[in-house]
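User: Hi! I'm working on a homework problem where we have to compare a predicted structure to a textbook description. Could you give me the structure for the chain below?
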Amino acid sequence: MNNNKRLPHTPPDTRHRIRELAYFRMIHESDLVCRQSTRMDRRTFAILCHLLRNVAGLSSTEIVAMFLHVLAHGSNGSNVLARPRS
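Assistant: Happy to help. Predicted structure tokens:
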């Protein structure tokens, strides 16, 4: 008897859809869920997204790069726009 049961394979498009739904719930379900996930309410999150895309003109790649920079350096955001050191 083999007790090592494998999980069934989930197609990549299904995994992508599950992730999409999880992110949608995280942002749009309620202020409580959004605040727990992002530390800001839905209105503030929407304003931030608008500012990053439309005012600052950042692409998705630039937004992700800034996010990872903040995570990597334990920054509070004050040095995000400073030039990275060589």
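For your comparison, note the following. The mean pLDDT is 78. Helices lie at 12-28, 31-38, 42-55, 60-73. Good luck with the assignment!
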